[in-house]
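W.,

You were right to be curious about this one. When I first looked at the sequence I had no strong expectations either way, so I just let the prediction run and decided to look at it fresh. Below is the sequence, 353 residues in total, followed by the output.
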Amino acid sequence: MNRNRVSMVVLLLSALTIAQSGVPSPQQKPVGEIMGTVVDERSEPVAGAKLHVALRIGAVVAKAIQYFDSDDHGSFAVPVWDFGTYFVYVGKESAGYPDTLSFYPERVPLVEVTGENPNPRVIVNLGPKAAVLSGTVRDAKTGRPLSSAFNLHWVDQPKRFYSTSESPSFRLLVPPRQDITLDVTASGYEKWVYNTQPVLRLEPGARMRLDVVLERSNNDAFGHVQYLVPTGYVGWVRIRFDTQDGAAAATEGGVAIVKVPSSGELMTSSPVPEIGAREEYLFLSPDDSTRPIPLDYWNDDGMIWGEHEVMRGGHRSEIDFFVGSEEQFLQHISKAERQFWVLEQNDEQTQAH
């Protein structure tokens, strides 16, 4: 799992296609700037909003999105490297305003950049504010915190949806005054579907807490792997797969046995486990006896934390996780990472499922 949030929106718009205006090569110089002001529903300037632009063209070109912030007066200047018509998107998630690309494509302004007018000006509107869902995602049996994908579907637009990866303690913006269906998925788990009401419909700025528990899938079609960790080991385990220098992991009865050395770092020529593979974590004693690593997070007795995948060259190549108590884990991560990995509580209305 990549630690950075990844979001995707699919919209039924028209035959029109767009290309994100990304980071240029060092040899390129901008042909102009799109300038203007970001305002809220009251037409007040908004500081710290994040803008990005996309060129309206006849073929899809994949480029990295480059964001620009509005200043203290709501003003902005976004450089562009091609003449043409641009969509101007804006959001400020920290204040509850979603990216207009995701939620309000019909309100996105179009701006023409030409040789005669290389620096056009535009007023860009935020809002309305989204509703906010927050809560936790856990394993139903063990209570283990889980990273997951949240999938929102517009009821009145069947081909339109929004998907985003979220940390175990999540904060999710939801389109206001829209009938939405919601499901949550995680590798190796059954899909969870919101069914408290036929649809989810919230007002702008509304807040709701939702604690989700996921049932483990009993399907071993994606494989079965055991991680054997030296008894008493505390710290990060980092396993690099598909390496030429490492030995292959043993296999017993169709179960891949990944034996972690005392250093906590392993390189193996074996392939990375399939997404959704069943995982077991065991302590390995010097006499080769094993015992399960505690995973009872409901009773504050869990010892596997922060599991994630590392991508290299666009491929899954490494699996990392921390072995130890929650207190020990917190000592090994930054304050920013705590917000991602550690389950947090708040005072919003709770709906546990």
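Here's what jumped out at me. Residues 188 and 276 are 4 Å apart (CA to CA). And, maybe more interesting for your project: The helical segments are 100-103, 326-331, 335-341.

Coffee later to discuss?

I.
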